[in-house]
Amino acid sequence: MFKYVIIANDYPESLALAQKLKIILTDREMQEDIIAPEYVFVIGGDGTLLRAVNEFQDILDEVCLIVVKSGSLGFYANYDEKTVTQAIDDIINDTAHIQQLPLLEVKFNNNQIRYALNEVKIVDHVKTIRTDIYINDELLEYFRGSGLVFATSTGSTGYMRAIGGAIILSNKHKLWEMKEIAPVANSTFSTITAPLILDDSQSVILEGELIDKQIIIDTYEYEANNNLVEIKFSDKTLNLIYNHRQNQSTTAKLQTLFAYCNNVNKRGDR
Q1: Would the pLDDT of 4 be above 60?
Q2: I want to staple 232 with a disulfide (CB 3.0 to 4.6 A). Which of 16, 74, 155, 203 is the partner?
Q3: Total-model pTM
Q4: Selecting from 2.70.70.10, 2.60.200.30, 3.20.20.70, 3.40.50.300, what CATH number does the domain 104-235 have?
């Protein structure tokens, strides 16, 4: 017997699948526990997964997540309604395959710590952000612009890609990325502007006029109340149970994602 919780988005098909899954788990004498589950079943897309990551920040490295696709395309999901029972069987039989996904650790507001699966953004779309960027306590540059974004390798396919960042394909190396958002550039001042690839030995410290700036961690927003933010590769990982029978490489997932987007654009679907 194991303890579980189900998190689903608000679409009718997802809620129906959640109810069906709860019946299956109850019939197998599994115990629902919304506070300290061992397994989190996520029904929906990547946004629903980010919600689960946010809800279980304090025990992220102690739980395993199973992402079940429901409707929309999910970059992290490789189970569906037909195969989710395989995940339950694999857990019971101790044959589940676990993929450890990288997390970024963000320290802000007097040592408050949060973890990001996709990206961290520090932004102000009204006033220019003025902050100094240090890498391992060594000054990199005096940044002036609308913001900065930091992404994991898996997160680099999302917002980071949309603003001209690099996609990190490597699975063998612990890499993450920094990119400037709308940096100031004129005849007297300019910044690096190019994406910066970092490894797990490097941390970034931002020190400057950050009070009241927005800190967005996987779509969840916080307001900075001091002038210091630290971002680094976390020692913690997200434990994702995946369907090894249908597992795709990152390259294959990218091909599927872009093919899906191209087809949507051709049809004019919304």
Answers
A1: yes
A2: 203
A3: 0.89
A4: 2.60.200.30
Cβ-contact 129, 145 below 8 angstroms: yes
Can you read off the two tokens belonging to residue 20? Answer: 């069906």
- CATH number attached to the domain at 3-95: 3.40.50.10330
Cα 192 → chain centroid: 25
Active site residues: 46
Rounded Cα gap, residues 132 and 151, in angstroms = 19
Cα separation of the two ends of the chain: 42
Asked if pLDDT for residue 54 goes beyond 90, the answer is yes
Gyration radius (Cα) of the chain, Å: 20
213-239 b/e (C-beta count within 10 Å ≥ 16 → b): bbbbbbeeeeebeeebbbbbbbeebbb
